[in-house]
Amino acid sequence: MALTGRTALLAALGSLPVGILAPSWTGMLAVNAPLSLAILCDYALAAPVRTLRFTRSGDTSVRLGDAAEVRLTVTNSSRRRIRAQLRDAWPPSSWPTGTEQASSRHTLTVPPGEQRRLTTVLRPTRRGDRQAERITVRSYGPLGLAARQGYHRVPWTVRVLPPFTSRKHLPSRLARLRELDGRTSVLTRGEGTEFDSLRAYVPGDDTRSIDWRATARQSAVAVRTWRPERDRHILIVLDTGRTSAGRVGDIPRLDAAMDATLLLTALATRAGDRVDLLAYDRRVRARVQGRTSTGDVLATVVNTLASLEPELVETDARGLSTAALSGAPRGSLIVLLTTLEAAPIEEGLLPLLPQLTQRHTVLLAAVSDPRIAEMAGGRGTVDAVYDAAAGTQAQAERRSTAEKLQRHGVVVVDAPPDNLAPALADAYLALKAAGRL
């Protein structure tokens, strides 16, 4: 049983004159006995809560930053009209701070044998799965003095996907890809590594392109034409170790790496390349491989990244390298989304690079902190001078680490969170233009 504010108000109003005019147990009993009887009658007349039936429908996934609607159908199978307040509870991160009470609470009236539909609007603030918790129903009697209260569990899961803010860069990169792929007049047919068609020989053609079998079947000399090779293999490796948990501004490093992963996946699959994903720290946290359809690959990668979180452990570089080598056929592009800090690179990754670069093209992308550049340019106060020295040293260490990687043949992309995704896409297109993919 739950008592309402109206009950407390009536008890206070009744006790006040008794306390002033006739302060005695008899006076108190004269006030509280009828009130207690009214409470019991009101409770007995309230519609039962346990006989209610609930079903859910609505959104099962939503992009971070957008709103999801989950509908709850309430069926009153009793013989009494129900007047109730309902709380549809979800985890705290399902709404922005301070909006949970207004979003999760509903008032409803359902006649006997009928049903009503309520809509709970979620605006999640974190990635991952949000699962519905219990539904609390408080059914009021006709006098509004007492209420029956009960709980129901109606499972429902809403998966919060990465926001993919870098998708705004996709049209411009696809236009450049079409130029590289020969779909515009920018690329001259005859260059590339994949057979396209036969045509008649003209003076100046490379004699190595002559197809002697086709020439023997016809009166004119035939030469092969080529186009850029498609169906190359790309393995994207996400470092989910402790360094990925760090924040640059308001963005976790892992989230910035995910955004870059999605843009590269969308671009590479449109180019006809095969994209696999590996998330690793000390063990495999997530893996996507064997997908071939363009839409299927991107959708699978998005769903896989949704529930991925950083692990507060040091990344095992040797295990990461072994997992990459075992998951990529020879001649693949391996994209490492990891840190560019000196210690993890020099102690973990550098000794293993010869194994990777001997068999594959390696591209390393890292999130840089714009605050370091601001610190390096600080002047005017003692604190600013110290910050400038620290910022300059940090910049020098990152440049030195990048140069060491480049000497091993690694392509390095070092960019702030907002620019990491387009910079990585540009590096991929540059590799294609250079014939390394």
From TrEMBL:
The lineage of its organism: Bacteria, Bacillati, Actinomycetota, Actinomycetes, Kitasatosporales. InterPro entries: DUF58. This is DUF58 domain-containing protein. Residues 198-398 form the DUF58 domain. PANTHER family: BLL2464 PROTEIN (PTHR33608), SLR2013 PROTEIN (PTHR33608:SF3).
